[in-house]
């Protein structure tokens, strides 16, 4: 199977597989406040991700690596959406375009369509410093995402089986790159043990990429005969992952993602300590099924609704949100208790 066929299969399966809603967002309830002393006019959605200033806490997360016309067109449309709605955007893995220069246009188009926006480059943890520099140069990127995807690789028949040396390579990259480095998961969540290893090598921004949304184990298992079905339910739910990493490392910038589908999910992720929130499968589904205009409308609606929820909670800034009273129920409560997080 060619790489671009595999990537197209990912897109197709992502639309139908794995929006399972096991994220934990439904276990969080805000405590209603009758006297919030707030006005929607005062609400600011501005946030910081390391040194980067974002006008809203939403970003479009990495999708559609590899080459091919269809991929390039999706990247072009995502770039237009990001530019028009002024949200940051990550591209999918650039490794194949580094190895095969005919694929570079798939990425260049993103900067061309969004000359002034915040764009994140993307590579896996097998990348060298040189490849990281090339990925950033290709897009004049404002940051580099490095994805960790061991479970996806293990479920892919043609995937990697050797995950040694990743920390050492990332340590080199973070020292030598001129832009911030964000280490992200891809839908299996990040534990505090992983976050600890990352902080020890100088990583200051992580994206938990939690369980409960796009599920690459299910996607890969749909594509093969011999199933590794035990990986279908493997992972740390998004809400647990945000809470556990942020509580354990308050100085770490945490990005929340994995199964985010609405404004209330976004506000919940922020209230648990995320500085910004990534959407991947949800926005791709709207783009492919309803089109570019609908996707932009959805992002604008989500932004507007975040303002309404913040007003109801009496929070005028993203920082205020982190103090909003809430209760945690069910599996999420149990999980956090077991992990000693209160
Ligand atoms: C992805 N994702 C991804 N992540 C990454 O770091 N590099 C990549 O190349 C890709 N490719 C990719 C393709 C497609 C079709 C999808 C849907 C997703 C993972 C993505 O960034 C995100 O971490 C997960 O999808 C979980 O978020 P959602 O989809 O549940 O919002």
UniProtKB/TrEMBL annotation:
As its record notes, the protein acts as a catalyst of: isopentenyl diphosphate = dimethylallyl diphosphate
Q: Where is the FMN-dependent dehydrogenase domain?
A: 167-324
What InterPro entries does the annotation carry?
Answer: Aldolase_TIM (IPR013785), FMN-dep_DH (IPR000262), IPdP_isomerase (IPR011179)
Q: Does the keyword Cell membrane apply?
A: no
| Cofactor(s) recorded in Swiss-Prot or TrEMBL | NADPH; Mg(2+); FMN
Specify the domain of life of the species encoding this protein: Bacteria
Q: What is its EC number?
A: 5.3.3.2
Assembly and partners?
Homooctamer. Dimer of tetramers.
Q: What is this protein's name?
A: Isopentenyl-diphosphate delta-isomerase
Task: Supply the source organism for this entry.
Answer: Robertmurraya beringensis
């Amino acid at each position: 199977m060619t790489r671009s066929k595999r990537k197209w299969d990912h897109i197709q399966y992502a639309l139908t597989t794995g929006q399972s809603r096991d994220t934990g967002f439904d276990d969080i309830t805000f405590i209603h406040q009758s006297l919030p002393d707030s006005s929607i006019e005062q609400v600011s959605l501005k946030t910081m991700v390391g040194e980067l200033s974002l006008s809203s806490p939403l970003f479009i997360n990495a999708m559609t690596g590899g080459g091919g016309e269809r991929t390039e067109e999706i990247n072009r449309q995502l770039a237009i959406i990001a530019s028009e709605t002024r949200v940051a955007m990550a591209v999918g893995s650039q490794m194949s375009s580094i190895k095969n220069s005919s694929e570079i246009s798939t990425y260049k188009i993103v900067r061309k369509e969004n000359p002034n926006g915040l764009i994140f480059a993307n590579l896996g943890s097998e990348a060298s410093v040189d490849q990281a520099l090339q990925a950033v140069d290709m897009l004049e990127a404002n940051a580099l995402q490095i994805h960790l995807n061991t479970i996806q690789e293990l479920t892919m028949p043609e995937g990697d089986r050797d995950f040694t040396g990743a920390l050492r390579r990332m340590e080199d990259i973070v020292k030598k790159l001129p832009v911030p480095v964000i280490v992200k998961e891809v839908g299996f969540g990040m534990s505090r043990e992983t976050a600890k290893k990352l902080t020890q090598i100088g990583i200051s921004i992580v994206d938990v990429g939690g369980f409960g949304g796009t599920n690459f184990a299910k996607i890969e298992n749909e594509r093969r005969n011999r199933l590794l079905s035990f990986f279908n339910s493997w992972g740390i739910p998004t809400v647990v992952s945000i809470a556990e990493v942020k509580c354990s490392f308050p100085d770490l910038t945490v990005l929340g993602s994995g199964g985010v589908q609405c404004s209330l999910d976004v506000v919940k992720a922020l209230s648990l300590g995320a500085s910004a929130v990534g959407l991947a499968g949800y926005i791709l589904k709207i783009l492919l099924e309803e089109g570019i205009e609908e996707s932009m409308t959805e992002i604008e609606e989500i932004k507007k609704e975040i303002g309404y929820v913040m007003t109801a909670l009496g929070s005028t800034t993203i920082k205020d949100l982190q103090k909003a009273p809430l209760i945690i129920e069910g599996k999420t409560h149990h999980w956090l208790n077991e992990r000693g997080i209160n």
